[in-house]
Amino acid sequence: MAFELPPLPYAEDALEPAYSARTISFHYGKHHKTYVDTLNKLVADTDLAGKTLEDVIMAVADKPEKQPVFNNAAQVWNHTFFWNGMKPGGGGAPDGELGEKIAATFGSYEQFVEAFKAAAVGRFGSGWAWLVADNEELKIVSTPNAEMPTAQGVKPLLVVDVWEHAYYLDYQNLRPVYTQTFFDKLVNWEFVAANWAHAK
Length: 200
Ligand code: MN3
Description:
This protein has helices at residues 21-43, 53-60, 67-84, 96-106, 109-122, 168-171, 175-186, 189-199, and strands at residues 127-134, 137-144, 154-161. It is an alpha+beta fold. Strand 1 and strand 2 (137-144) form a beta hairpin. The mean pLDDT is 96. Manganese (III) ion (MN3) binds next to helix 1.
């Protein structure tokens, strides 16, 4: 059973103008698809074939000789998680228990966004900025390249792709503006709240 590119949870033009159909056509249709295709080639006829994506990631995460498998498998997972963290008409502060937890942890929603932007902008080169649950506390972290937060007790709640391919067509070099727009217009807090409910 080969891995498949998961369907986008919305139409390619559904996030316009904050995240353009042109960006999604490349980012989802080319980048994400290539990670899936490459992963399938790498695991074909190996003992990893037939495992779930999560099991492949766990199986190779600490094996330097399997770095290409990890990179492609993690990128498949990270991108699917990224797409699910956005929605048409998204953005703005979350309400409910998650909103209260964010305000209590970071001081206010605005301070949370500033801290998240600092993590996104501070990630030198390619990588990801994350909101995670770390033993039931909220934390902002960033990871390089394909890496994901996987320590014991740490569960991803939300991710922003800060590889240049994620934003260059719409925002050129302006990663801070892209990240601010993600929170103003794109973030799907229902997805984050559901992840938080499972993480607690
Ligand atoms: Mn990407």
